[in-house]
């Protein structure tokens, strides 16, 4: 036994004695290999360089919007990721070698074991551990750089994909070129793997929803979605139609209510169905966040698709042609019936495809191809709508049927649809896919906004008119409760209808200004409208092409609204008031002048012009006013005074500077006066303020018809006086109050001068009344044998060298 123990101790001593030599040999081999690796790729040198490149790419990406530069930065990020991976692969064997050496040395002996190792072994183990820790740190840094470069590349691709929606001048290749279809045969792209991976996530979501514990709920939600989309929509629409027929008063309100009901029921059915499907497949807690986000985007997209289908069904109303709101023939409506659901389906499919590309993080080329196909199909659908409508109308004309009367606005809309479709096709052919995609979705968005505005504006106007109409129970109740005149009720109805249309125009304008599918709810549109009109758009002077386009659109909408409001005041509201014609014209003119000023200022603010930076404009205008514009400004201010103080108004008979006529128009600079021969004199407004003006019709003045006649001295004054009074009393134009009168004016050598006076209702009737009176007076005087005094003329003749005065009539 003692012999065996002695042998084991000898072996252990020999192992301890030879282990430093073995370690040193291993250290020499490892040092030689470690020395060879840095010669190929020195991690200590390369890692700081890679980190600087990564930081530089991040800085450039943060403020870059150009697609070509973003593409170059993406290539740099991908190259950096590859270099970092190469470095990791290069230094990983070194770590493995160091770990093998440490395994040979083993862990340090425990103190209680009684075994001691030499200082050389301890120093070598510590050196190897330090080298291994350093390499581990380098591998961690390289992995972090690789991960950062990969994430940065993903972000750049996402930025490029988002920038495609705004970079309209980017040429991505014609749809007939190989560049456009390159994602289909490009083997270097990993889009197929990305899409397949995301589709696998969707498949896993369906599997989770079909698990035994969740299967029944999934079936219930799917069945509910199908029932809501079919029977629910139909029966809800029938119910609202019954309400419109049996509960609403007769009139236009029924048609507008039914159109709105059709659009809303279709929208509600589509949105509810998609929400039920979302609950059916994504309610499981193990569903990934990417799938939930994708499903939520589809639910939001269903709002717009439901609006497209609902508005199309409401406009065409093929089931109830007599209730159709716009003037469209039944043949045209039936021809256009397939297009609303087709357009809704195209928008849903390709918007879902865009969301899929975004969720799967596919390449920009794949996104461009999807956008091009989307624009191609939407543009083709737009052209098909226009061509099919024209073909049906031509067919009706050839058959002898009378097509519907197409207004100018309808013709402009159809022309805009056609031109937009042609522009989409041309943009796709020459390679501007982003522009084509923008035009296609702007066309759809403009259709949604304008269609909603058309139906809601009719609904608001008809509801206001029906609510305050005295032929309905509500109007009668309001009239009895407030004890007001029917005319006032009609004024309130007109005001409410105009106010509602104004709000709708505001929301529609903001919706169009904010672009395609930018606001999902009317509440957000109203909030943006309040912020916009509240002045937040006036904070900085930042004139860019997009702002100029918005300003032009705002100017067009503002002028349209202003003209509509002026027409509404002139034709609907003011005629129902007690204002006279002149007051109405003056009020409309003042409203128009102020409205145009506000519209122009609003357009400047939308363009980005700051009010606090207009000092130089005001200074320039001050100099101009001081030199050359003072007359224009004086006439402009005088025109405002004429419209507000109203010393003269449209329709007055005035006399100024020897000019007498009727005022036909008070403009900003001058006033138009129409003379008796229908010619027009333009008088500057300042003359009405600085000169004496005779207003013959101011204050409802009456006209005075005065005739002065001279009779011989031998007439019977009483008889003549009664004759003249009888002529005035018998004339229908002469007023009874005040009564006509005959005045003894003068007694001259020529005879007795009598003046006959009578009043007429207006100064404009004086000339005609005097003509009729003179005809009647002369006829009666001749009948009674009374003659007028003959004027006496004195002639001075030279007879026998003397001047002799001879009366007229003497020999």
Automatic annotation (TrEMBL):
Residues 113-123 have a biased composition (Basic and acidic residues). InterPro entries: DUF3772, LSM_dom_sf, MS_channel_1st, MscS-like_channel, MscS_beta-dom_sf, MscS_channel_2nd, MscS_channel_C_sf, MscS_channel_TM-2. Residues 1-25 form the signal peptide. It is a multi-pass membrane protein. The keyword Cell inner membrane does not apply. Residues 632-697 form the Mechanosensitive ion channel MscS domain. Residues 589-630 form the Mechanosensitive ion channel transmembrane helices 2/3 domain. It is found in: Cell membrane. SUPFAM superfamilies: Mechanosensitive channel protein MscS (YggB), C-terminal domain, Mechanosensitive channel protein MscS (YggB), transmembrane region, Sm-like ribonucleoproteins. Keywords: Cell membrane, Membrane, Signal, Transmembrane, Transmembrane helix. Belongs to the MscS (TC 1.A.23) family. It comes from Erwinia aeris. Gene3D superfamilies: 1.10.287.1260, 2.30.30.60, 3.30.70.100. This is DUF3772 domain-containing protein. Residues 140-200 form the DUF3772 domain. The lineage of its organism: Bacteria, Pseudomonadati, Pseudomonadota, Gammaproteobacteria, Enterobacterales. The chain crosses the membrane at residues 214-236, 257-278, 298-316, 328-353, 365-387, 408-431, 443-461, 492-513, 543-562, 583-608. Residues 104-133 are annotated as: Disordered. It comes from the Bacteria.
């Amino acid at each position: 036994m003692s012999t065996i123990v002695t042998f084991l101790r000898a072996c252990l001593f020999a192992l301890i004695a030879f282990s430093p030599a073995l370690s040193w040999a291993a250290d020499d081999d490892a040092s030689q290999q470690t020395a060879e690796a840095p010669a190929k790729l020195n991690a200590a040198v390369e890692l700081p360089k890679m980190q600087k490149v990564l930081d530089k790419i991040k800085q450039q990406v943060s403020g870059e919007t150009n697609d070509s530069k973003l593409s170059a930065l993406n290539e740099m990020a991908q190259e950096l990721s590859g270099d970092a991976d190469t470095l990791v692969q290069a230094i990983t064997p070194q770590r493995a070698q160091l770990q093998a050496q440490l395994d040979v040395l083993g862990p340090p002996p425990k103190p209680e074991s009684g075994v001691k190792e030499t200082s050389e072994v301890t120093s070598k183990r510590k050196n190897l551990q330090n080298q291994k820790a350093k390499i581990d740190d380098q591998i961690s840094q390289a992995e972090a750089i690789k991960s950062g470069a990969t994430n940065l590349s993903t972000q750049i691709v996402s930025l490029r994909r988002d920038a495609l929606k705004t970079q309209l001048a980017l040429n991505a290749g014609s749809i007939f070129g190989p560049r456009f279809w390159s994602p289909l045969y490009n083997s270097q792209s990993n889009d197929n793997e990305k899409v397949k991976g995301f589709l696998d996530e969707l498949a896993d979501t369906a599997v989770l929803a079909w698990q035994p514990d969740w299967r029944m709920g999934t079936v219930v939600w799917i069945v509910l979605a199908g029932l809501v989309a079919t029977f629910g929509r139909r029966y809800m629409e029938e119910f609202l139609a019954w309400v419109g027929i049996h509960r609403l008063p007769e009139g236009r309100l029924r048609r507008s209510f039914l159109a709105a009901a059709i659009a809303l029921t279709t929208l509600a059915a589509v949105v509810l169905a998609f929400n039920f499907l979302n609950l059916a497949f994504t309610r499981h807690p193990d569903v990934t966040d990417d799938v939930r986000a994708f499903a939520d985007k589809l639910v939001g997209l269903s709002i717009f698709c439901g609006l497209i289908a609902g508005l199309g069904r409401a406009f065409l109303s093929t089931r109830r042609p007599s209730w159709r709101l716009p003037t469209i023939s039944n043949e045209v409506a039936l021809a256009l019936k397939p297009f609303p659901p087709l357009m809704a389906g195209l928008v849903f499919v390709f918007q879902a495809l865009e969301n899929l590309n975004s969720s799967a993080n596919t390449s920009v080329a794949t996104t461009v191809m999807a956008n091009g196909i989307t624009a191609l199909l939407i543009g083709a659908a737009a052209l098909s709508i226009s061509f099919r409508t024209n073909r049906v109308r031509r067919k009706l004309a050839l058959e002898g049927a009378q097509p519907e009367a197409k207004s100018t606005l309808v013709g402009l809309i159809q022309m805009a649809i056609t031109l937009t479709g042609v522009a989409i096709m041309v943009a796709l052919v020459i390679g501007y896919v982003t522009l084509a995609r923008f035009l296609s979705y702007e066309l759809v968005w403009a259709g949604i906004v304008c269609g909603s505005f058309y139906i809601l504006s009719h609904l608001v106007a008809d509801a206001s008119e029906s609510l305050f109409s005295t032929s309905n129970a509500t109007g009668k109740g309001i009239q009895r409760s407030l004890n007001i005149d029917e005319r006032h009720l009609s004024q309130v109805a007109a005001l409410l209808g105009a106010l509602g249309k104004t709000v709708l125009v505001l929301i529609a304008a903001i919706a169009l200004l904010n672009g395609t599918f930018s606001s999902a709810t009317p509440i957000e549109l109203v909030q943006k409208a309040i912020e916009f009109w509240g002045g937040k758009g006036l904070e900085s002077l930042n004139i860019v092409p997009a702002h100029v386009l918005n300003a032009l659109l705002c100017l067009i909408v503002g002028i349209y609204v202003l003209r509509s409001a002026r027409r509404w005041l002139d034709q609907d509201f003011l005629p129902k008031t007690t204002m006279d014609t002149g007051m109405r014209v003056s009020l409309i003119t003042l409203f128009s002048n102020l409205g145009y000023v506000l519209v122009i200022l609003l357009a400047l603010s939308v363009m980005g012009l700051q009010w606090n930076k207009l000092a130089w404009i005001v200074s320039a205008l001050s100099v101009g006013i001081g030199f050359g514009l003072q007359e224009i400004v004086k006439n402009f201010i005088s025109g405002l005074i004429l419209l507000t103080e109203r010393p003269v108004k449209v329709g007055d008979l005035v006399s100024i500077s020897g000019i007498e006529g009727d005022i036909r128009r008070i403009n900003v600079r001058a006033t138009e006066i129409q003379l008796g021969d229908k010619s027009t004199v333009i008088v500057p407004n300042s003359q009405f303020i600085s000169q004496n003006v005779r207003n013959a019709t101011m204050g409802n003045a009456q006209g005075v018809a005065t005739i002065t006649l001279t009779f011989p001295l031998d007439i019977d004054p009483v008889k003549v006086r009664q004759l003249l009074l009888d002529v005035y009393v018998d004339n229908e134009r002469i007023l009874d109050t005040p009564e006509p009168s005959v005045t003894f004016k003068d007694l001259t050598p020529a005879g007795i001068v009598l003046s006959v006076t009578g009043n007429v209702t207006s100064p404009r009737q004086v000339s005609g009344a005097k003509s009729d009176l003179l005809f009647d007076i002369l006829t009666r005087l001749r009948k009674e044998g009374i003659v007028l005094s003959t004027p006496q003329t004195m002639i001075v003749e030279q007879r026998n060298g003397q001047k002799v005065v001879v009366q007229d009539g003497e020999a």
